[in-house]
């Protein structure tokens, strides 16, 4: 689940613990800030901020450095301020992306910089235990590669290609991940890894990844559409991930775009996923092109093959048609297109934009910029790690908590 980071309620923490948490949160949200800025943002006195910062520095949780020249103007003309950031190697977060056909693992430092990565093809749909075992093995390999002390791991985030019950964390397979009905992946993975585990739908994780690290940085209202073997969307609304009442929000892959289309894995007919997954696009041209799957589809597009371009354009039009309603209803500032099909770039984006303009209100369409993600196939795994990084201030504060 995507949980917002909150300051724990006062009875559980002393004043000094709370101040420490506020300072760490401020440094986490605004890396490279001065003590004066932290004081302004937290409402704490300059003296309290300095004292807490000194304590965090001696615990090696934050680092201090001189502002570079270009920063001096921002801080005024006086003495060169020293800036504070979290010490990147003080702790690490693991991201795990479980798609229908792959498992990807990343280890990030506190600054979100990947220090190791592992990937493996996998038959995920019918095999939860084998998939989670594989994810565990990949995590161990990544930690070894990066020489990370497992005691410094704050937790693992998982992005998984299925709706998730927000109350129980159980998979609501609904035909989308058939062998996983009722499995609680966070509990399963926590048992294997021995660290806290957070779970999100993969498109929600992708949205968070692009919002925190990628093309959607600083954007409060955005939609991330993932066009892969599964098609789905993740929503960031008013600066926060939005999952809906039962964790199903954003399932744009199962919006009907062809009333007489193919039967979908969810049991309905003509869902967007039957039209706009890379496999569905390749299928459109398989009777006129030899082996159109995977890489070849994209090389045909790059070479300007009219048949491949037409197949991608039709998929883009269907995506835009489904998105037009979403754009009207939610009025986003940005639509980020990710997943493998995003590699078709403008051949895909132009028809999406055209369909949005044709089928939504002019004001809403004009506001919604449509771009490809900047993280490529790592959006989901980085977003999964971000689930843990978002909780890092509380975890770091806990390490230096004043004994009661
Ligand atoms: Zn469907």
Spell out the blueprint of helices and strands.
Blueprint: H1 15-29, E1 33-34, H2 35-42, H3 46-58, E2 62-66, H4 69-74, E3 82-86, E4 92-98, E5 102-109, E6 114-121, H5 128-146, E7 153-160, H6 185-193, E8 197-201, H7 202-213, E9 222-227, E10 231-237, E11 240-242, H8 273-276, H9 278-284, H10 295-302, H11 306-330, E12 334-338, H12 346-359, H13 362-367, E13 369-372, H14 379-389, H15 392-399
Parallel strand pairs: 4-7, 7-8, 9-12, 12-13
Antiparallel strand pairs: 1-3, 2-3, 4-5, 5-6, 9-10, 10-11
Helix pairs in contact: 1-2, 1-3, 1-15, 2-3, 5-6, 7-14, 10-11, 11-12
The structure holds zinc ion.
Bound molecules: zinc ion
Ends apart, CA distance between termini:
31 Å
**Overall pLDDT, averaged?**
90
What is the CATH architecture descriptor of the largest domain?
A: 2-Layer Sandwich
Q: How many alpha or pi helices?
A: 15
Kindly report the name of the CATH homologous superfamily of the largest domain: ATPase, nucleotide binding domain
Describe the structure.
The chain is α/β, with parallel strands linked by helices and 404 residues long. The protein has 3 domains: 77 residues, Winged helix-like DNA-binding domain superfamily/Winged helix DNA-binding domain (Arc Repressor Mutant, subunit A, Orthogonal Bundle), CATH 1.10.10.10; 125 residues, ATPase, nucleotide binding domain (Nucleotidyltransferase, domain 5, 2-Layer Sandwich); 158 residues, ATPase, nucleotide binding domain (Nucleotidyltransferase, domain 5). It is built from 15 helices and 13 strands. It has a 5-stranded mixed beta sheet with strand order 6-5-4-7-8. A 5-stranded mixed beta sheet has the order 11-10-9-12-13, sandwiched between helices. Strand 4 and strand 5 form a beta hairpin. Helix 11 crosses helix 12. The longest helix is centred in the last third of the chain and has 25 residues. It is globular, with a radius of gyration of 23 Å. The N terminus is likely disordered. Zinc ion binds next to loops.
């Amino acid at each position: 689940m995507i949980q917002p980071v909150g300051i724990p309620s006062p009875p559980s923490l002393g004043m000094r613990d709370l101040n420490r948490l506020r300072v760490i949160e401020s440094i986490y949200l605004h890396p490279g800030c001065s003590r004066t800025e932290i004081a302004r943002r937290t409402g704490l006195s300059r003296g309290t901020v300095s004292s807490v910062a000194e304590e965090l520095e001696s615990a090696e949780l934050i680092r201090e450095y001189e502002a570079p020249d270009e920063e001096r103007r921002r801080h005024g003309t006086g003495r060169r301020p020293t800036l504070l950031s979290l010490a990147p190697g003080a702790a690490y977060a693991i991201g795990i992306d479980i798609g229908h056909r792959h498992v990807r693992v990343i280890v990030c430092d506190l600054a979100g910089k990947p220090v190791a990565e592992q990937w493996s093809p996998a038959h995920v749909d019918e095999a939860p235990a084998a998939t989670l075992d594989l994810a565990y093995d990949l995590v161990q390999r990544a930690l070894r590669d990066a020489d990370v002390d497992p005691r410094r791991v704050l937790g693992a985030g998982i992005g998984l290609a299925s709706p998730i019950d927000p109350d129980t964390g159980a998979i609501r397979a609904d035909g989308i991940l058939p062998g996983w009905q009722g499995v609680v992946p966070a509990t399963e993975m926590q048992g294997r890894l021995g660290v806290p585990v957070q779970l999100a739908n993969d498109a929600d994780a992708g949205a968070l990844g692009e919002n925190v690290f990628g093309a959607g940085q600083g954007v409060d209202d955005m939609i991330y559409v993932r066009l892969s073997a599964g098609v789905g969307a993740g929503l960031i609304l008013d600066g926060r991930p939005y999952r809906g009442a039962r964790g199903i929000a954003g399932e744009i892959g199962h919006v009907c775009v062809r009333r007489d289309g193919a039967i979908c894995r969810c049991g309905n007919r003509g869902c967007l996923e039957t039209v706009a997954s890379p496999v569905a696009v390749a299928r459109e041209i398989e009777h006129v092109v030899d082996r159109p799957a995977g890489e070849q589809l994209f090389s045909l597009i790059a070479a300007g093959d009219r048949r491949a371009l037409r197949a991608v354009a039709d998929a883009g039009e269907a995506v835009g048609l489904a998105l037009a309603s979403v754009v009207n209803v939610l009025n986003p500032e940005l639509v980020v297109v990710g997943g493998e099909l995003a590699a078709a770039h403008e051949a895909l984006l132009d028809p999406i934009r055209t369909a949005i303009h044709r089928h939504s209100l002019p004001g809403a369409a004009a506001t919604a910029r449509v771009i490809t993600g900047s993280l490529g196939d790592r959006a989901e795994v980085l977003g999964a790690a971000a689930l843990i990084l978002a909780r890092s201030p509380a975890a770091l504060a806990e390490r230096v908590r004043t004994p009661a």
